[in-house]
Each structure stands twice: as C-alpha cells, then as structure tokens.
Design a protein that fits this description.
The chain has 209 residues and is mostly helical. The protein starts with a helix and ends in a 6-residue tail after the last helix.
Length: 209
Amino acid sequence: MSNDKKDHILNVAIELFAEKGFEGSSIRDLAAKADVNVAMVNYYFGSKDKLFEALIEQKAGFMRGILDELRTNTSLTEIQKIDHIIEKYVDRFFSQPLFHKVLQQEVLVSQRASMHEHVIGLFVKNTEDVVAIIEKGIRKKIFRKVDPQLTFSSIVGTINHVMMSKTMCMKMLNKDPGYDPYKDEHFKKRLLIHLKQMIHAHLLINNDL
C-alpha cells in the first residue's frame, strides 16, 4: 500500500508541477491535490527537492531497465537495438507528456544547481549506454563513423521538439483546436517511421530500409 501511496503522490506532483511549475508549487499544495496530509509527503520524501529527485529517478529507471536488457541481449543487431530504443522513448514520452513538460522546465530554468546536476546525471548514464551501442556498430563496420553522442542527441532532440507544445504540433499539422497529438496513434507512427528512416540513413553503411 505504501508504494501505491508514494506513486500516487508522485503522479499528482507531475500534474501540479506542470500546472504551476516547481517553484510555484508547495508541499501543502501537493498534499491538498493528492488528498493526503503534509506529514505523509514529508515522511516519504523529506522535502520538495527530494520528491522531485524521486520523481526523476522513477521515470529514468524505466529506460534504465530497458537499456540494461539491451546491453546483455545477443539476439538483436545494433540497428535493431537502436530501433527498440527509439520506440521506447517515443512510447514513454507520448504516454507521459506532462512529465516531459516538467522535465524540460527543470532542465531549462533550474535554479537549484545540485538538483540540476542530479537530474542530468541520471540521464547521462542512459546516454552512455546508447552511445556504446552506436560505437559497437561502428567497430563492427555496420555503422558509418558518425558522432555517437550527437546522433543520440538528434533522436532525443526530434522527440523533444514534438513534445514541446501541443499548440505547435496542432499548427504544424494543420489540425483544429483541441487536437491532441500525443493521443494520435497515426502521428506517433509517423514520428517513429521518420526517426527510424533518419537514423538508418545516418548510421547504416548498407541501408536497405
């Protein structure tokens, strides 16, 4: 039950931070929105900063598990692993657009250096694992001699651009007001196809896609 309660508080925190921003939210606001008392929030997390760190660790941990599995997987080729990573990142962000908004706010306008470093550190490890897959493909002469770090940045940067604003997507796609791109399976498939085509063309020496 305690884990359910903690997860509930974290999920409500995403909604609150997306609405008011981290700086504009208080533990009291969170407790009221989550329908729990302040003491319970403090018991589980200790402070608002620690709560935010727990939130990032929970979300980063999902991809951590995926990447750990891929690192030991010998049945998939390097390009299949990259395709799998693209699919998981797109699925994750499309299913949690509010979390992406909160994350971007913190990364771009952080006023707390120590927490900012903690957040970045969690995602750097994931980046390193993807870079290692690309570097292995280069050593095996399957991939071109590309810049592995910037290749991964190109993947994440494209997703981030799409996730930046519902309104921007609406205008870019010539959709009516009220359109939600993150619930549009056709648009998600379109993004996946584009990313895979772009990365295959960029990486593969022999590209048959």
